[in-house]
Amino acid sequence: MQTPTTRAQGARVEFYRKTGKIHPRSVSGRYDSLRWAMVWITQIVFYGTCWLSWDGRQAVLFDIAERKFYLFGLVLWPQDAMLLALLLMISATALFLVTAVAGRLFCGFACPQTVYTAIFRWVEERVEGDHIARMRLDQAPLGLRKIALKGTKHAIWLAIALWTGITFVGYFTPISELLWNLGPGELGPWEGFWVFFYAAFAYLQAGFAREMVCAHMCPYSRFQGVMFDRDTVTVSYDSARGEPRKLRSQAASRSTSAATASLIQNTASPRGDCVDCSLCVQVCPTGIDIRDGLQHQCIDCGLCIDACDEVMIRVARPTGLIRFASERELAAPAASSASTSPILAGLLRPRAMVYVGFLAAFTVTGIWLVAERIPLQVDVLRDRNALLREATDGSIENTYTLKLVNMLEAPRAFRIRVEGPAGARIVGADTIQVASGSVLPVPMTVAADPVAGLSGAQEIRFHVEAADGPPTAITERSAFLLP
What we know:
Blueprint: H1 4-10, H2 30-49, E1 53-54, E2 57-58, E3 60-63, E4 68-71, E5 74-76, H3 81-102, H4 105-109, H5 112-128, H6 131-139, H7 144-169, H8 175-182, H9 189-209, H10 211-217, H11 220-223, E6 234-237, H12 239-242, H13 249-255, H14 258-267, H15 279-282, H16 303-314, E7 322-325, H17 327-331, H18 342-347, H19 350-371, E8 376-382, E9 389-390, E10 396-406, E11 412-419, E12 425-427, E13 431-434, E14 438-448, E15 456-466, E16 473-482
Antiparallel strand pairs: 1-2, 3-4, 4-5, 6-7, 8-10, 9-10, 10-14, 11-13, 11-15, 12-14, 15-16
Helix pairs in contact: 2-5, 3-19, 5-7, 5-9, 7-9
């Protein structure tokens, strides 16, 4: 019977594993190429979109001061918060779907932490050399060469981080205006704070924290496990094919005599395809051994697959010893494994279809809201200080304030009419000019004739129609008080 002490000695839980600084080895292959393709795509979008113009203004701009979000020809206001909520729900559902089907695929290829870490490591490799040269440089005593190399690397890192901070703030302040103010040092306090804060954040996260963010700081790595099942496709080591590992000839020649090595080869059981070269560990950006099984530090970048496939080709063995596979696929006999793509098989299971259904529903709803969106908002506020008054001609008057929000970036004219009891009508002008992208409060008086049998609050409707531009119409209800 196991005591608590023996159980604790047999299975120790580590909440933090100190691995030291990781210098991953470079590798080439299809997943490395795909990863760099995603780096280029994401950074072209990020660094380039803020320079696009649309109708004389920046195409994508979060104008916090004016409380507007410009997205090419679409101008969103705080009243369009539902669209933002739908966008967040679409993003979250898409992430959940990808996780349920293919694990941390987003982390390995599109996460900003992964992207900028790859960029910073590329700079480090070009300046300091390959992984061995970098380790030797770290261990070398401080000297002119080390100071020059480290200084050059950090200067490039700081330049990339600073431009990243400027670009980030350029989505909230027009980028041309931001750069103009940056030169003479006329940045506003908040602009200056966020430029340098985001630059420092990128510099520290991608230059120093790196894999610690993925392993210890990111909450996604911790709760992703509850979204996995036996059909989730992740980077996996085929232990049934790879174990027991072959004895490497070089290691054998160093540690044993030729006779001992021969005896081991003659008496040992048949060996697996894994040659225990440890390249899968050397190329891993988080420093784990994928052969130990699924670990929360794994970001599914696929670099260990590229390294292992290269070795398998060299030793004339089939590739795929490490590959994207599900637990069910690895447990199935090779002869009975299905020919269907594991990603497709993962998409067709009920759990994934639920995510697909929610994703489709949110997307269709968002498209419908944008298509049916009316670029006008009307709020009717009744004057509560004067409930009603009797005019000289005997009619009953109620006063209101109409708040008209013109959501288009062009001035517009709106015609207002009322529909209510006893021939309700507007006293005064019924056509209002509203400036582009502005909120206009309009005082308005409505008169109606007293009618026998009608008293108290009666429903009244305000119909607001565009007198120019695209057809726009809104109807708002309020109350008209009769004596």
